[in-house]
Write a structure and sequence with these properties.
Elements (H helix, E strand, L loop, with lengths): L10 H6 L21 H14 L4 H10 L3 H5 L6 H10 L2 H18 L12 E10 L16 E12 L2 E11 L4 H8 L6 E4 L6 H9 L3 E6 L5 E6 L7 E9 L8 E7 L5 E6 L6 H9 L2 H13 L10 H24 L6 H10 L5 H8 L46
Helix pairs in contact: 2-11, 3-5, 5-11, 6-11, 11-12
Organism: Virgibacillus litoralis
InterPro entries: RNaseH-like_sf, Transpos_IS4, Transposase_11
Family: Belongs to the transposase 11 family.
Length: 410
């Protein structure tokens, strides 16, 4: 952000001002509501994700504790039970549209970036599961002992270091990835990366007809009929060939590249990228790891793993609010042109939430000051005295059998 954005406005207020919450006013939903209107409810939900407020009771206390709550959320205090009821009743299209507004902000600041320097525009498609409690959400049971929901996600790779979701489709856990994949493959100018769960010969033929570029991992059980072999260079590339997939052959041939990674694991990639070398195809598929890192990031750093509702609508809303918070953190990181990661940026947003944006700006642009040479290696001999436990623990020397009694060193 430029210098005009540096103000005494609080950090949380500044982040929430980036999104058009007031456009979600609804006379129907807010009929008879005095304080917790739909825009204010959505502000609180996004703030809870940015601050990682873990429960409705914690959200209640956070709102009550903030001095600027009335100005920020339109209420000075609110009950957790009321938040729960309103979140479950909020149409999920509202939360989805708010997420799409945050995506537009990211698309604006990444419009000049062309994606990956080697492969161009990349879209990584994958799904991740969120588990519900064993006694809740019976509508989401996949097996007799497991119930879950899924996040079918399309991740846009803006650069090798920046990626964001621009489309998310929540579903129950029994929805197969191939059932929703066509909703995520819509841009003919992008290359799509898929894992093994997306192998569908009919859809791959359809993508070939649409001239959609893709790379999908296949298993050893998938039958391949080789039409032409290409020369390979290097030990890691095992095969590069033109093949037809399936016992009932596909209409279009694809390229098959087999390679081994650094740990010796074998990968088989079916792709429509004929313009790349086999080594580049292997590197292309490695970019799919970005979506795995994304799922790990949102589960670790946002309020998502612990689902706070047992109702479908409440869970879908929580998912979209979490995605919105991720986009806001990434937007701040990109616009501030900081070298800090998205997680470090979010961490600073949480630390400085009640401080001024000016204080946050100084923190995120603070250069490290190293006043010492760091820890120096000691040239003194190690102490011959064995360091035990100072007499507070039971310690058994390494190598002793379990049948022997542990000694208590003092």
């Amino acid at each position: 952000m430029d210098n005009t954005s540096i103000s005494n406005q609080s950090v949380l207020s500044k982040c929430l001002s980036l999104l058009p919450f007031d456009s979600f006013s609804s006379y129907f939903l807010d009929w008879g509501v005095k304080k917790l209107t739909t825009p204010n409810l959505m502000r609180i939900c996004v703030a809870s994700q940015l601050g990682k407020w873990e429960s409705f009771s914690q959200i209640e206390e956070q709102v009550r504790a903030r001095e600027d709550s009335r100005k920020l959320f339109g209420v000075a205090e609110i009950s957790g039970s009321q938040l729960s009821r309103r979140l479950n009743a909020l149409p999920s299209t509202f939360a989805q549209d708010l997420f799409l507004e945050s995506v537009k902000k990211l698309q604006e600041v990444t419009s000049e970036k062309s994606g990956h320097p080697l492969f161009g525009k990349l879209h990584v498609v994958d799904a991740s599961c969120l588990h519900l409690g064993p006694t809740f959400g019976k509508w989401a049971y996949v097996t007799g002992s497991r119930n879950q929901v899924k996040l079918h996600t399309r991740l846009v790779v803006a650069s090798p270091d920046e990626a964001f979701p621009d489309k998310v489709i929540p579903s129950t856990g029994n929805v197969d990835e191939r059932e929703v994949v066509m909703e995520l493959v819509t841009d003919p100018d992008a290359t799509y990366l898929f894992d093994r769960g997306y192998v569908d010969y009919a859809k791959m033929d359809e993508w070939m007809d649409m001239k959609v570029l893709f790379a999908v991992r296949i298993n050893d059980i998938h039958k391949t009929t080789i039409l032409e072999n290409y020369e390979t260079n290097g030990e890691k590339i095992l095969k590069d060939a033109k093949v037809v997939l399936g016992s009932k052959p596909m209409k279009h041939p694809v390229r098959l590249v087999e390679f081994k990674d650094g740990e010796g694991r074998k990968y088989r990639i079916a792709t429509s990228r004929w313009d790349l070398s086999a080594e580049e195809v292997a590197e292309l598929y490695r970019c799919r790891w970005m979506v795995e890192l994304f799922f790990k990031w949102i589960k670790q750093h946002l309020r998502l793993v612990k689902l706070q509702s047992t109702k479908p609508q409440g869970i879908w809303n929580q998912i979209f609010f979490a995605m919105t918070a991720y986009c806001l953190a990434l937007y701040v990181q990109i616009t501030e042109e900081t070298k800090k990661s998205a997680w470090q940026t979010l961490e600073l947003l949480r630390i400085y939430a009640e401080r001024s944006w000016k204080a946050f700006w100084k923190a995120i642009h603070r250069k490290p000051k190293r006043t010492s040479k760091g820890r120096q290696k000691s040239h003194l001999p190690r102490s011959p005295v064995k360091q035990y436990d100072a007499g507070v623990a039971v310690v058994k020397p390494i190598g002793e059998k379990r049948s022997k009694t542990a000694k208590y060193f003092k």
